[in-house]
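Troubleshooting entry. Yesterday's outputs looked truncated, so today I'm pasting the complete records for two proteins to confirm everything comes through intact. If either block looks cut off, that's the bug. Protein one:
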Amino acid sequence: MTSVAPEPHTVFLNPGEFYFGSGMTRISTLLGSCVSITLWHPRRKIGGMCHYMLTERNRPAGAPLDGRFGSEAFEMFLQQVEAAGTHPGEYQAKLFGGANMLSGPGGEKMDIGPRNIELGRKMLAARHIALMAEHVGGSGRRKLHFDIWSGDVWLAFPQGSDASIRSSNG
């Protein structure tokens, strides 16, 4: 009798959404100037992804966290990390997106993508989370797929991309 591997459960994130889980789960999203951070715990095989649009807002007192803002999406990660009985420094991160796709009224490029990238790097560094790889900047769109069971991330470029890739693994 032949054993067939189970199909992964796919979760698609729209802008502002967040997911954290385990098992045979694949998280997917489509990025432009937005940024996604993946966090993965290599020993426990748990992790998640956020998809934020802007860096931050003046959050009203008592307002729930809003994943559209990077600072709040990262706080959602920290809540899940704590709930899992783990520590931020035990995770590996990957950072994606931040394309320079939006133009202002005079046709000049807006810096939303670069600001989103910088915030992601700063938040990870502040919590001593290893940034294992990033694929950021440029002007193209990215399809992103993150397999929680393995920590692997897959990229596709529906309209091409001139973004650069950097990995700390060589």
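Protein two, checking that the full record survives here as well:
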Amino acid sequence: MKQQRLPSPGPGASIVFPELSPIGTRLTARGNVASKPSKTGRITTSADAAKIRSLKTTAMSLASVHEFGDLYVNFMRERKRVFVDQLGWNLPTADDMEFDQYDNPFCRLVAVHEYGEILAGIRLSPTTARVGLHSYMLRDAQLGLLENIPNDVLFFDAPVDATVWEATRVFISDTVSADRRPLIQRALINQMVDTARKQGANSIIGIVPSIYPRWLRRLNLDAVPVGPKFDIDGSRLQAILFNINHSIQ
């Protein structure tokens, strides 16, 4: 997977699926800045385009991490800072990095970064993955292998399908300013969709805050709740499934 330059003037200071707010510039499915002004007053000047040239997205596999210098290590350290240090999740750590059994050669790690700083990330895993007793997070939860996620997390049997991938460990760093957050979100979802499509996926399933389907729909992605709402560490969560065959506008 190669690095791609992606647009980016200004989003915000929330972490883990922050709500989408009105954006200052519009990205196309390829991450280009829209050339036309919109009714909402979106900015599309050359000055704004210059601001986003430093933002990049990268999709890494364990086989390709050596191509990106310290990006992989920085990515795993930012995950530890977000999920362990800030959110207080009880997750394995080593050398200031967070990881678990799903960080294996089957997965793809999607990073939004700027000058080496990790701004946002997602982990993608195929629902056909198998590593010892484990498969992927939602299926393992349903099978009672994960103590922190209820086994009735889905309304149906967890899929085992090469065209369905799972998204986990989604975050946007609190170092991202509020005015940049929407564009970072869009860049992250653009690269996630592009990466999943290249792996043969047409749908993505995952556990997200219950507000998440609403802003996926704003990106022209059809998000459908596929499990009951539940609480973990004060967060209201729900499993969703969304189709990635539509372009992001």
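Both blocks look complete. Sanity check on protein two: The chain has one domain: 4-243.
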